[in-house]
Structures are given as C-alpha cells and as structure tokens.
C-alpha cells in the first residue's frame, strides 16, 4: 500500500515535471574529459581519456532524480527508478527523437576526441595503461573471490568473529563522520583512539574480550554440531576458507 501511495503522490506532481522536461530537457554539451573523479589515466599521470556521453535515458534520469529526491525524500530508490522509467516511456516521441539525434551528434564529437587522444599518447603509455587495467582486473577478481568465500562461510552457519576494541570505538563514532572522506575519518579515529585514557580504552577492551569469549564458545559448539552430523567436508572447507583474509574473521581463534 505504501508503494501505491507513493505512486499516487508522484502522479500529482509529474505533470509540472513533464512540462519542465519537455521544454527544458537538453543533453549536456559534450565534455572531452572526465572531471568528477580521477580516471585511471589521470592516476598514472597521463592526460585524461575523453568521457563517453551518457545515453538519453541516463541523462533523463540524472536530471529528474534530484527533483524527485527533493520533493519526496522518503521515497526509496527502486520506486524513484520505476517512476523515472515510467515517465521516460511517456515522453513525446518527437521530443525523444530530437534528444536521440542530439546524443548522436555528441557521440560523433566523442569519437573524434578519442581518435585525437589515441594519437596523442605513445606506445609506452598505452602499454602502461593496459598493465594498469590488468592489475585492476586482478584486484577486482580477488575481491570477488573473497566475497565468495565469505558467502560460503555464511552458508555453513559459522559464527562471525566479533569486532576488536578499536572497531567498537570507531563504530560508536560512525554517525559523526558526516561528509568527511573515509581516509581522513579513519586517520582521525586512530588519533582519537591513541589519545584515549587507559580507563576509557578499557571499557571497549572489556566489551571486545567478552564478545571474543562468546565467539570461541559458539565456534566450539558449531564444530561439535558438524562432527555429530558427520559433516567432515564442512569442517574441512571451513578450515581451508579460514586461512583466507575473509575467512579468518569467521574461523580464526
């Protein structure tokens, strides 16, 4: 019912938005380089690669989403995406055709910029970029493997290793992070942790020690259950996965 209510509320305001989009909605002018975040090339100290223009639909989504977010801050993302898709389908065919034509022109500019970019970098720089891409692909694969191990361990019902005293301290202050960058926040937390008095730190260490004791007991009971069920394979897998970075938080004692 909440979902339907949100749809009805949205329908009451989509009329003005539709008029706004039909009269003002335009594709952004082509930007030859990415500026929102550092690209792989920029991280290597090279000239940034031209940025591929967004499709008409994703540009439509980017422009409409902030309006809906502002009007209905409690609306969930899936509901917003569903409404955006619905409004996109309702767009006047002639207007959509015009936007698609504009996007084609932007893509032509992008293609020319890509040719100029490819001609501007040396073979050595191209090899450097390829190597960096391979390295990132390997890192991504390792992250996926760690995630897979974690999911396997979770399916076995293995107790999860509790957080350390420092982690408890950091979690307690997480709500105060605000817009601070994660690295800056982590550095700040570490400095604050080191500045705690012995008495203040003891409270977190006591809680962590209690959780660790409960974790070890849970692990003992889990292993007994596995042995009683004759699930030696599960115990073997747990031991194998436990040697990994992700698995260690489940199995190490």
Structure description:
This protein is mostly helical. The chain folds into 2 domains: 2-121, High mobility group box domain (DNA Binding (I), subunit A, Orthogonal Bundle); 135-251, High mobility group box domain (DNA Binding (I), subunit A, Orthogonal Bundle), CATH 1.10.30. The protein has 11 helices and no strands. The chain has helices spanning 2-24, 40-43, 56-71, 77-90, 93-120, 123-155, 165-172, 182-195, 198-228, 232-242, 248-251. Helix 3 (56-71) packs across helix 4 (77-90). The radius of gyration is 27 Å and the shape is elongated. The model is unreliable at 6-11 and 243-248 (pLDDT under 50).
Short description:
The chain has 11 helices and no strands. The chain has helices at residues 2-24, 40-43, 56-71, 77-90, 93-120, 123-155, 165-172, 182-195, 198-228, 232-242, 248-251.
Layout of helices and strands:
Blueprint: H1 2-24, H2 40-43, H3 56-71, H4 77-90, H5 93-120, H6 123-155, H7 165-172, H8 182-195, H9 198-228, H10 232-242, H11 248-251
CATH architecture of the largest domain, by name, is: Orthogonal Bundle
**Largest sheet geometry:** none
Task: Determine the mean pLDDT.
Answer: 78
Portion of residues in beta strands equals under 5%
Question: Roughly how much helix do the residues carry, as a percent range?
Answer: over 70%
Shape: elongated
